[in-house]
Amino acid sequence: MPATTVTTYISDIACAHSLKQVNETIKSFLVVKALEGLRRKTGGTKADIRAPIATTKNVSKFDKNLPKCI
Length: 70
What we know:
Layout: H1 3-19, H2 29-42, H3 56-69
Helix pairs in contact: 1-2
């Protein structure tokens, strides 16, 4: 299960606890460290795989077509 899903579930639990005025155990040391470990284990954020637009090949295409656009 992704770390973001677990964080969402824990956030929902924290909201329910605050509505019922129960002590916040969500911010305990163990819960925080468990979430950090889960993020580390699952890789945290995903790598940005988008390709750059401004390559030399694409810029030369833009230069050729720019006078047609104006």
